[in-house]
Amino acid sequence: xxxxxxxxxTVQAPEGATLLEAARTAGIHIPTLCHLPGVHAPGAxxxxxxxxxxxxxxxxxxxxxxxxxMRVRTNSPRARNGRRDVVELLLSEHEGDCTTCARxxxxxxxxxxxxxxxxxxxxQGERRPTRLDHSTKGLVRDTGKxxxxxxxxxxxxxxxxxxxxxPQERGFGTYVGPAFHAPLxxxxxxxxxxxxxxxxxxxxxxxDQVDEVxxxxxxxxxxxxxxxxxxIRAALGECFGLPPGSRVTGKxxxxxxxxxxxxxxxxxxxxxxxxxxxxxxLLARLRGALGGGPKHGPxxxxxxxxxxxxxxxxxxxxxxxxxxSTCKSPQQMLGALAKSYYAEKIxxxxxxxxxxxxxxxxxxxxxxxxxxxxxxxAKDVDVVLTTRELGRMIREAGIxxxxxxxxxxxxxxxxxxxxxDIFANSGGVMExxxxxxxxxxxxxxxxxIQLEPVGPMAAGGVxxxxxxxxxxxxAWSFLEGQTVTVAVVHGLAHARQLLEDVRAGRRSPHFVxxxxxxxxxxxxxxxxxxxxxxVRQARIRAICEEDASKPLRTSHTNPGVTQLYEEFLGxxxxxxxxxxxxxxxxxxxxxxxxxxxxxxxxxPCAEARPES
Length: 612
Prior knowledge:
The protein is 32% helix and 13% strand. It is α/β, with parallel strands linked by helices. The chain has two domains: 3-92, Roll (Ubiquitin-like (UB roll)), CATH 3.10.20.740; 211-581, 3-Layer(aba) Sandwich (Rossmann fold), CATH 3.40.50.1780. It has a five-stranded mixed sheet with strand order 2-1-5-3-4, sandwiched between helices. The longest helix has 23 residues, at 267-289. The model is unreliable at 453-459 and 591-612 (pLDDT under 50).
């Protein structure tokens, strides 16, 4: 472990640490822009410059190794002036629009400029052309605001293995985006929004649909209802200065009512419903695979709650689309029920009920616009807002969020169990499904599951567990003595590797949960910034506490779901639930177009389509 001196403080750095990491172990702050811990440290932005005794130039601390005996100054006049010059040069090429930019309150470049003491920009010159990209449903790009930090590129390539964007051209003409100035809709972007989550400025973000919701709320002909995803209740408070992981469910409901929504529903309700449908689908597939009945689909069965994962499978794994659960996501299930079951109860036509979803995810904006999501007789979900958009909307309305009283959601579509809460965390969908499936099969609660990391991706990718099924009830005798293996994966790079392992026979789980975003939905692309590992852990703890606090913790014990089946759906996997709550997906590919093309044209890849 090298020992060095930073600002006259003796620091013992971990072996292999950089100067930036060594400084942080000693509580010494060095500003960064391009650095993304554990993912990306290119030394490109030069904002982290420090002075090293004996070095001819200032050094980028994020890529300079810490050596024994080094003497480093982070706050010398030379280091501070160097950082200030770098920040001024970045500002000279940046299309600021700070008064109207959506990132004005949490812009990292603006914060670093204040920290560096920048009072005016001394460098004036030509700026790169600005290109606006509004081609996708979930994301908007503005190249004029891009500072070429490449954090978005690192996440897209290293965490999600998509590679939709990259540095293009050279020198002053460099820009980050798809090749040949193509719009995002013309490449295999899954709209997960992780790029928008790590962007330090306003170069990429969610498509803002707050005004659409305001217009709907002001339309006297519409009955506007809202649903909130489980991850929102552990993150929304951050928009109002509360610590990460603050549970604000009651205040969130109160705020939504004050915004004017006619009913406040909980996506947790349809998460419980998803478990009823998905759990029975898994059991049906197991029955078919083990010789106990007709085949209902191949194994392993993959979850279908994450829309970015669905797009990934359509693009990169068309041969395994029949392995996806046919269940719609909880968002789409609740939308379909709001425009059928709920609309009937209140005497409204489906088109007169306007459904707004509050989601931690930008890909949900794309999902609600899919052609497959109109089984209620109208578009199942009309508008999706991210957590960040809801925070802006509440501030626009002048609501003092932190002083609001706690209120409860509207029954029956607002009743939920703890099993639905944990949908927000990676592994939660799998555990919730097993809680119900195991109890249905054995009549006993699910024992504790210990998920173990497996394979070369143990540091962050795939976890697996096996459950021995014994003493089953007679209806499920084919499972007696069987060992069911489940796997959990988050991050599409890890999902890609898992798919390869399954194809090659190196791994053969029965049930796989896939989440695109690190940590699951609590780290979604529409969540408040910053979303660091520490923030993710705080949100995960809050969701687990929410689960533990519920009197009901298994989806099949939700009285609202029981009532729904009795009054409307009949039974899991029944005819009506199949029509409203299930769907299917198709392979998709893109035909190359000229750079000026504005709209994506997905084409089914006939040669890759799995046989039905």
